[in-house]
Amino acid sequence: MRLVVDTSVIVKAIRNFNGASAALIQEAIRERVVLLVSTPLWLEYESALQRPEHWVWPGFGAADADRFLDVLANIATPIEIRFRWRGILPDPDDEMVLETAINGGADFLVTFNQRDFAPATTALGLEICRPDAILARLKERP
User: Fold this and answer.
1) What pLDDT is attached to residue 141?
2) Rounded Cα gap, residues 68 and 90, in angstroms
3) Buried b or exposed e, range 45-66, using 16+ CB within 10 angstroms
4) What pLDDT digit, counting tens, does each position of 51-69 carry?
């Protein structure tokens, strides 16, 4: 299962180690899913995870954020953006996520912001899911 994960899901993974977002990263580490990432999306991940307001656990700091990014870098599959998809989504900042999904042949785009990504489901046939829905699908698989 090839996934593109919105930045909000990545941030949630470090804010709640016991939640669905963190569990989804664990599934990628176990190679049950493939995380796809482009350079612009990776830069967004880095920017978000290096902001102290996301370090909510006692003792979690910049070094931990860097280690988490190192883990992501080791498990993510890089995607080259060959075709840009612009003007489909209401928020232009979401377009890098969409472009990664389309260019990478993702099975699912994983986000908490399903409403803003909804135009992509109609226009491009891309399936949008929350992390818990992906985990439920994985439980159904052998």
Assistant:
1) 77
2) 30
3) bbebbeeeebbeeeebeeeebe
4) 999 988 878 899 999 999 9
To 10 degrees, what angle do helices 62-75 and 7-15 make? 130
What is the C-alpha to C-alpha distance for residues 3 and 6, in angstroms, rounded to an integer?
Answer: 10
Look at residue 90 in the predicted model and tell me its pLDDT.
Answer: 62
Question: Where exactly are the structural domains of the chain?
Answer: 2-140
Tell me the pLDDT tens digit for each residue of 26-37: 999 999 999 999
Domain topology for 2-140: Rossmann fold (3.40.50)
3-class secondary structure, 119: helix
Residues 72 and 78 sit within 8 Å (Cβ to Cβ):
no
Determine the Cα angle at 69 with ends 65 and 73, to 5°. Answer: 170
Summarize pLDDT for 86-139 with one digit per residue, the tens: 667 667 778 889 999 999 999 999 999 888 878 777 767 789 999 999 999 999
- The alpha carbon of residue 59 and the mean position of all alpha carbons in its chain are separated, in whole angstroms, by 25
Q: What is the dihedral of CA 141, 79, 122, 140, to 10 degrees?
A: 10
